[in-house]
Design brief:
Helix 1 packs parallel to helix 4. The protein has a domain of 86 residues: Orthogonal Bundle (Butyryl-Coa Dehydrogenase, subunit A, domain 1). By secondary structure, the protein is mainly alpha-helical. The radius of gyration is 19 Å and the shape is globular. Helices cover 49% and strands 6% of the residues. Bound molecules: flavin-adenine dinucleotide.
C-alpha cells in the first residue's frame, strides 16, 4: 500500500500552511498554547471560527451542499494536522463534528436551513447534556424527563 501523499495532497498542504501563516494571529496561537483543557476560551475559539467561516473552511468535514468543503479524508487529515502544528485553536466538537454531520445526513430541509447556518456563524453553541447529579457513567439511571405539551416539551430534571 502506498502511504505517500500525492503531489496534489502536498499542494493542498502548502495552501493550508499559507492560509495559516496569513490568517492565524499570534494571539490565537498563544491562546491555544495556554489552553489547559479540552475546550478553548470562548473569545479565542469564536475569533478563529469566524476566520475559518469567512474562508469557507469552518465545516471542513461537512458536505458541500450543507456549507462544508467536501474535502477528502486525506485533505481533512492534512488540515487538522497543519492546524495542530500551527497551534490553531481547537474547534467546537459537539456542533461541528457530532451534531452538524447528523443534521447534514438526516435533517429535514427545514432543520438544515435553520440550524446549520447558526452553527457556522457562531449564533448557536451546542453542548450535550447527559450527566446528572448521581448519573454519570450510568446513563440508564437518568431522571430528567421531557413531557410533550401540545407544540412543546416540558423538561423536568437537573443536568451537570
Ligand atoms: C472533559 C470532560 C468533558 C465532559 N463533557 C460532558 C458533556 O459534554 N456532557 C455531559 O453530559 N457530560 C460530560 N462530562 C461528564 C462525563 O460524562 C462524566 O464525568 C462521566 O460520565 C463519569 O461520570 P461521573 O463523573 O459521575 O463519575 P461516576 O460515574 O460516578 O464514576 C466514578 C468512578 O466510578 C467508576 N464506576 C462507575 N460506575 C461503575 C460500575 N458500575 N462499576 C465499576 N466502576 C464504576 C468510574 O469508572 C469512575 O472511576 C464530561 C466530563 C469530562 C471530564
Amino acid at each position: 500500500m502506498d502511504l505517500q501523499f500525492s503531489a496534489q495532497d502536498e499542494t493542498f498542504r502548502q495552501e493550508v500552511r499559507r492560509f495559516l501563516d496569513e490568517n492565524l494571529p499570534q494571539s490565537l496561537r498563544d491562546g491555544m498554547r495556554a489552553t489547559p483543557g479540552v475546550f478553548v476560551e470562548p473569545d479565542i475559539g469564536q475569533e478563529w471560527q469566524a476566520i475559518l467561516h469567512r474562508k469557507g473552511w469552518l465545516a471542513y468535514n461537512w458536505p458541500e451542499d450543507c456549507g462544508g468543503t467536501g474535502w477528502s479524508p486525506i485533505q481533512r487529515y492534512i488540515f487538522e494536522k497543519e492546524c495542530a502544528l500551527a497551534d490553531a485553536p481547537s474547534l467546537p466538537v459537539l456542533s461541528l463534528k457530532l451534531l452538524g454531520p447528523v443534521i447534514c445526513k438526516f435533517g429535514t430541509p427545514e432543520q438544515k436551513a435553520h440550524y446549520l447556518p447558526r452553527i457556522l456563524d457562531g449564533t448557536d453553541y451546542w453542548c450535550q447534556g447527559f450527566s446528572e447529579p448521581g448519573s454519570g457513567s450510568d446513563l440508564a439511571s437518568l431522571k430528567t424527563r421531557a413531557e410533550r405539551k401540545e407544540d412543546h416539551y416540558l423538561i423536568n430534571g437537573r443536568k451537570l
